[in-house]
Amino acid sequence: MELYINSAQLALKIKSIAEQADALSGHALAYEEMVALPCFGQIILRFTLNADAYTPDDLDRYESLLSGIASDGFMTDFMGSVYRKAGVDYASLDRRLLELNDRFKDEKIVPSVHADGIREDASALLKMAGLDAALPVWEIQADGDEYTLLVLGKEIRKLANLETPIKLTVAEADGRMCTGLIKAAVYCKRNSISLIRVLADSL
Questions:
Q1: β-strand 42-49 against 75-78: which pairing, if any?
Q2: 3-state SS string for 138-165
Q3: Cα distance between the two ends of the chain
Q4: Torsion angles phi and psi, residue 155, rounded to 5
Q5: Residue 187: enclosing H or E segment and its boundaries?
Q6: Can you list the positions of beta strands (E) in the chain?
Q7: Residue 180 host element (H or E)
Q8: Rounded to whole angstroms, how far apart are CA atoms 190 and 25?
Q9: What's the CA gap between 132 and 32, in Å, rounded?
Q10: CB of 182 within 8 A of CB of 171?
Q11: Does residue 29 carry a pLDDT above 80?
């Protein structure tokens, strides 16, 4: 099955960004994964940070560097383990995301150049799962030939699970938390600060 997120052209763009991030950060930044957000028309590139210790100020600097490299084509952030190491309390993250949904409710999200492609991917995968192709897909995760779709909803539950013709899981996620996270990320990118500044209660 041909999907936009598997296209060679997209892979080359991501490879170029990953190489620039590695070189300009002195090998501190390492590309880890891509996640598509069809509902918001965005693709997020996630990185790890090769450092034994770092501060929120360090994350401000590195995330600003990543944002500059990716420009308007992609959003960027770190893997959750990076934020956890820098002080985010994941035990209270659900509550925090609900707060961010209220705090940033007026934040505007402008779809990227990838919007049409990843929305078509979401529709095709939903149809394959026997679900309504118009469902609002928050996230498409691709791990080799296995795909996971998270649909914006009100609770956390599994909607479909396929083994053939592809491995595909579709689940529902809390739409308020998802929206809070992406709007907070847009706010942070616009203000050249790290996402940790709004994820961590103490900052």
A1: parallel
A2: EEEEEECCEEEEEEEECCCEEEEEECCC
A3: 45
A4: -145, 175
A5: helix 175-190
A6: 29-37, 42-49, 75-78, 137-143, 146-153, 157-162, 167-174
A7: helix 175-190
A8: 21
A9: 31
A10: no
A11: yes
| pLDDT, mean over the chain | 94
Answering whether pTM is above 0.85, one says: yes
What SS3 class is residue 110?
coil
- CA–CA gap between residue 203 and residue 77 (Å, rounded): 18
Per-residue model confidence (pLDDT) at position 173:
94
Q: What distance in Å separates the CA atoms of residue 95 and residue 161, rounded to the nearest whole number? A: 29
Residue 94 burial (C-beta neighbours within 10 Å; 0-12, 13-18, 19+): middle
CB atoms within 10 A of CB 155: 8
Rounded distance between C-alpha atoms, residue 188 and residue 199, angstroms: 11
Predicted local distance difference test score (pLDDT) of residue 133 = 96
**For residue 38, is the peptide bond before it cis, meaning its omega torsion is within 30 degrees of 0?**
no
Q: What percent of the chain has pLDDT over 90?
A: 91
Residue 203 banded pLDDT, cuts 50, 70, 90: low
Please give the residue range of the domain that contains residue 88: 1-203
Residue 174: what residue type? D
CB burial readout 129-144, b (16+ within 10 A) else e = bebeeebebbbbebee
Mean pLDDT of 127-133: 95
Q: Is pLDDT at 88 greater than 80 in this prediction?
A: yes
Count structural domains, the chain.
Answer: 1
